[in-house]
Amino acid sequence: MRDVSLEIEAGEIVALLGPSGSGKSTLLRALAGLVPHFHGGTFSGSVIVAGLDTRTHGPAALAGTVASVFQDPEDQIVMTRVENEVAFGLENLGVPPEQIWPRTHAALAEVGGGQLAERRTVELSGGELQRVCLASAFALEPRLLLLDEPTSQLDAQGADAFLSHVEQTQCAVVLSEQRVDRALAIADRVIMMEEGRVVLDAPVVEARVWLSARRPRYSGGLAQDDPSPSVPVGPPVVRLDDVHFAYGSGREVLGGTSLVVHRGEIVALEGRNGSGKTTLAKIAAGLLQPTGGVVARDGRATYLSQDPGRHLVCETALDEVALGVNGDQVRAAAALERFGLSFATCRHPRDLSSGERERLGIAAISVSEPDLLVLDEPTRGIDPDRKALLSAWLLEQAESGRGILVATHDPLLPAHRRVRLGQPLEVPVAV
């Protein structure tokens, strides 16, 4: 961040927009006192939250006054049981015991997660984990709520319900969100950052005009049309017939699912959080073996997980991408350039923003030119301009003869077919 000055009023909802790596997460961390006390770095200026100067009051002193939901909910979970996770923050604040469980269960209900209370956190999908982190923040009843991509893994119904609750909350909210239309629908004010600076700070009505003129994709314009459905251009690259799967002795996640992905087509796998999209994607890629049914795969498959940061293992972005092509740094550098990451060639992957890590993961799985690309929530943390480039790249990959399976909640990603788990029939895209 550079020369950032702003004030946030009590009860105000601020939509924080900007491309990946523009400084949005850093701003949120500064408001929470995590910058500089936890993340380090060089800090100048001052941040005052509820009368407390963050230079002398760290995250512990701000706990309860400020609550945060991080971009990566997997990094925020500390307990093994959902209701204990939500209660954890209340216990640390010394909330009277008789209030803890009512506030815990009320917060879970507010985010549509009441049915998750007794589940183990390690068994939850990414979207379900996001709901739990949101409930943990709501339970604290903070004066300032900081939300970093809080709906990136939520299904449409869950995202709408959550943001509806945010709209009714009495505290100040700063919402960093790449689903811009939803953020603008509830915001009072818009702040947009680029290259560490604030380039727009205006009421939402004025901001819509500014965005329409200067950043049209942030105003809901230039949506990507689906390619027309047609007879598949190639044979099946993967076929799943009557697939069943359960984790350990738990409930069956998939109970007789069938799916075919052909060469030359993009199949969007949709469904509510916890419907089994990630499990089905992993089975298609060969990372999980079904407990019943048959999987036939023709050629090599690569898989991008919901959280690419979990499988980044090298010291530089270049080495990370080169890992998939036997250390070929020329091919790796070309892949980084294709996804706008040439600047990160010598950077450590974990120094990148969440959206930049997402793009790095896509570069790493695509560089080896597999027959089947399996992508799990590839737009997580990606700004609208980068999303448009990703859409164009997916179409290029399909035209080159690859099969593509995308587990997604994003209706703007192009697809030849859309398949919804939990419904008996595939839903073709209308001409």
Protein described:
The chain is an alpha/beta fold. It folds into two domains: about 15-220, P-loop containing nucleotide triphosphate hydrolases (Rossmann fold); about 235-430, P-loop containing nucleotide triphosphate hydrolases (Rossmann fold, 3-Layer(aba) Sandwich), CATH 3.40.50.300. It is about 30% helix and about 20% strand. It has helices at about 25-30, 35, 60, 80-90, 95-110, 125-140, 155-170, 180-185, 205-215, 275-285, 315-320, 330-340, 355-365, 385-400, and strands at about 15, 50, 50-55, 65-70, 145-150, 170-175, 190-195, 195-205, 235-245, 250-260, 265-270, 290-295, 300-305, 370-375, 405, 415-420, 425-430. A six-stranded mixed beta sheet has the order 4-5-6-1-7-8, sandwiched between helices. Strands 13-14-15-11-16-17 form a six-stranded mixed beta sheet, with helices on both faces. Helix 4 crosses helix 5, helix 5 crosses helix 6 and helix 12 packs across helix 13 (about 355-365). It is globular. Mean pLDDT is about 90; it is low at about 425-430.
Provide a quick synopsis of the model.
The protein has helices spanning 24-31, 34-37, 59-62, 82-92, 97-110, 126-139, 156-168, 180-186, 204-214, 277-285, 317-322, 329-338, 354-366, 384-399, and strands spanning 13-17, 48-49, 52-53, 66-69, 144-148, 172-176, 189-194, 197-203, 236-246, 252-262, 266-270, 292-297, 301-304, 372-376, 403-407, 417-420, 427-428. It has 431 residues and is an alpha/beta fold. 47% of the residues are buried.
